[in-house]
Write a structure and sequence with these properties.
By secondary structure, this protein is of the alpha+beta class. The protein contains one helix and eight strands, in the order H-E-E-E-E-E-E-E-E. The protein folds into two domains: 35 residues; 99 residues, Immunoglobulins (Immunoglobulin-like), CATH 2.60.40.
């Protein structure tokens, strides 16, 4: 009778472990399927952010959409200081079409971490119909 209980326990544990491995595999498969949101208007939105050895910052953003009257990019150069991100400089560019580019340069102080955050907006008939956000990697200078 003791052998039967042990046998049942081993079988039970095998079933539990098999079930857990299937759940983990399904979760990993699900995570791979989530890539990006599906937009109705926005085709692409890219950022480029660099800091040279002398502290010269170069930022650029590109937004491409379909069927809009106006597109806009607003970009923020941010510095991590005293435990939070603070905007050092902001820029904006608007275009009456399906493409807009924002390219700017700035000089930053050394000893801080920086990032570039941009927002893209799509307008149709004067109303904003879609927006997105893009954040660069962080760079310590």
């Amino acid at each position: 009778m003791v052998l039967d209980r042990r046998c049942m326990f081993v079988i039970f544990m095998a079933v539990v472990l098999l079930g857990l491995s299937l759940i983990s595999a399904n979760a990993a498969e699900f995570e791979k399927e989530i890539i990006t949101p599906k937009f109705s208007y926005i085709n692409s939105f890219y950022n480029d952010f660099e800091i040279s050895d002398s502290g010269n910052v170069s930022v650029s953003s590109y937004l491409n959409v379909d069927n809009s009257n106006q597109v806009k990019i607003t970009g923020y150069l941010q510095q991590f200081n005293d435990g939070s991100w603070k905007t050092v400089k902001s820029w904006s560019n608007t275009s009456s079409g399906n493409d807009v580019v924002l390219k700017k340069e700035w000089t930053v102080a050394s000893g801080y971490t920086y990032r570039y955050v941009s927002y893209g907006f799509v307008y149709v008939g004067g109303s904003m119909v879609e927006s997105t956000r893009n954040e660069s990697s962080k760079i310590y200078y």
